[in-house]
Design goal:
- This protein is mostly beta strands.
- It has one domain: Trefoil (Acidic Fibroblast Growth Factor, subunit A).
- Strands 1, 2, 5, 6, 9, 10, 11, 12 and 13 form a nine-stranded antiparallel β-sheet that branches.
- Strand 10 and strand 11 form a beta hairpin.
- The longest helix is centred in the first third of the chain and has 14 residues.
């Protein structure tokens, strides 16, 4: 009876918009302890937001030269136990914001928080060297991150429908995403 009463009270409190309920599970999002570089496999160039952020533009590009302007090319991977397998939010050192994408698939580092699946990416090892980054919020078909040299500026990052191919592979260093 006590268990049933407590469940009813929790249901009423949660339904009424109260977020903190004693004994309820609390999300525990944590980010990596170190900064990571995400290097496009085909070009060898690092992913980064536009360093000038012209008029607040936080579009991601795969045009960063490794070793140059490294501050702007660093990211942290953030994980929550309530998210799906290999799902991460990716935090930009330059913008101080998270990766996200619009309905057109263009990738940005401009989300102020993690508000839904548009800020989540499935990141997994393709083989011993290469990683794949897939936008989670497209449920009906897979959309993989890759630089598109024909869209807008050179090597603008976007999430495009598969099939998975070599333009969608990245090297992530260090390779332990939560290190």
């Amino acid at each position: 009876m006590r268990r049933l009463l407590r469940a009813a009270v929790v249901a009423v409190l949660v339904g009424g918009g109260v977020v903190s309920v004693p004994g309820a599970a609390v999300a525990a999002t944590t980010c990596s302890r170190s900064w990571h570089f995400i290097t496009h496999g085909e070009t060898g160039l690092n992913v980064r937001p536009d360093p000038l952020m012209y008029q607040g533009n936080t579009t991601l590009y795969a045009d960063g030269v490794p070793g140059d302007d490294t501050w702007n090319q660093q990211f942290m991977f953030c994980r929550d136990p309530g998210w799906g397998t290999d799902h991460y939010a990716i935090y930009s050192n330059l913008t101080g914001r998270y990766w996200s994408y619009g309905t057109n698939g263009v990738l940005y580092a401009g989300a102020e928080g993690i508000h839904g699946t548009q800020q989540l990416f499935q990141v997994w090892k393709y083989d011993s060297t290469w990683w794949v980054i897939r936008a989670v919020g497209f449920p009906f078909y897979a959309r993989y991150a890759h630089p598109n040299p024909t869209r807008g500026w050179s090597n603008q990052m976007e999430a495009v429908a598969g099939p998975l191919n070599g333009t969608m592979l990245f090297r992530i260093t260090p390779s332990d995403l939560m290190s």
